[in-house]
Amino acid sequence: MIDGKSLALKLREGIAQEVSLLEKTTGIKPGLAAVLVGDDPASAVYVRNKKIACEKAGLYPEEHLLPASTTQDTLLALIAQLNADPKIHGILVQLPLPAHIESKAILQAVSPEKDADGFHPVNVGRLVEGDPVFVPCTPKGVIHMIDSTGLDISGKQAVVIGRSNIVGKPVAMLLLHRHATVTICHSRTKDLPSVVREADIVIAAIGKPFFVKADMVKERAVVIDVGINRLDNGKLAGDVDFDRVKERAGWLTPVPGGVGPMTIAMLLQNTLESAKRFAEQ
Ligand code: NDP
């Protein structure tokens, strides 16, 4: 098992040391502003967890909790204010936004120099070119978890299930830059199980509980489960049938306690790196 919780804890300890050193040497404390619009309970939990993680690592957290009725113009004005605020080095807009707000317009309004989630088109382009500044947090965490197994990604067959802009596509791009041979599967993929069976590395980012079954997984494959699904009994489950796949996989991440904690650690790391760039300027 790849223990995301303890990997993330280690990362966060290192980040805390670097934050304190940066503050001592430059007077700059990395600042992260989280913007939440509406009252989606899961999003509220994510934002709260990110704030707690910031505080623990010594970053300066700022929370902007806005009602669901917030207009696009009001939100754009807040983003402009955060872009100009020297205390803030990372801005994260919690998705999904209410339907009346155009997410694309909001994500494009965040300064590419403070885009802690790496969703701005400029940062997407830099990632595709292989010269990223902000790497999206979940994909960055996924690569760190694969690296923690000691597996050399170069030359391996990697299958990413899911092609979203926030997980599937950037993960595939990062694996490609690490010289994996990458296949991206989605809802129109024909005979998906036989494609997945070829993979040395499987990334499941679908949003369907227990989708990846043991007979779809090659023996000793590294399986990273990004999915977070709330079951009818209230429990969380990933996209992978953990109990059965663990008998075949070489390495497997649990849910909860897998990719989730890594995502938060990477958000802190992105904010720290951004603050360092500001300090250099
Ligand atoms: P999206 O809903 O944006 O994308 C899901 C992808 O899965 C789509 O590309 C879709 O294909 C594909 N898909 C859906 N059903 C099937 C199917 N039956 N067969 C093959 N492919 C299918 O989800 P996200 O990428 O945003 O998130 C994926 C999961 O990861 C969710 O459970 C989410 O909660 C979780 N997540 C976890 C994070 C963490 O920190 N651990 C962070 C972000 C997300 P198509 O494009 O054809 O529709």
Features:
five-stranded parallel beta sheet; Rossmann fold; binds NADPH dihydro-nicotinamide-adenine-dinucleotide phosphate; 10 helices; 281 residues; globular; alpha/beta; three-stranded parallel beta sheet; 10 strands
Q: How do the strands line up in the largest sheet?
A: 5-4-6-7-10
Terminal CA distance: 42 Å
Please count the beta strands (DSSP E, at least 2 residues each).
Answer: 10
Helix content: 40-55%
Biggest sheet details: 5 strands, parallel
* Structural class by secondary-structure content: alpha/beta
Large-scale geometry:
globular
CATH topology of the largest domain: Rossmann fold
User: Regarding CATH, which class of the largest domain?
Assistant: Alpha Beta
Beta-strand proportion: 5-15%
CATH architecture of the largest domain: 3-Layer(aba) Sandwich
The sequence of SSEs as H and E is HEHEHEHHHEHEHEEEEHEH
Counted up, domains total 2
Unreliable stretches covering 5 or more consecutive residues: none
Q: Please give the radius of gyration in angstroms.
A: 19 Å
List each distinct ligand once: NADPH dihydro-nicotinamide-adenine-dinucleotide phosphate
Task: Report the mean per-residue pLDDT as an integer.
Answer: 97
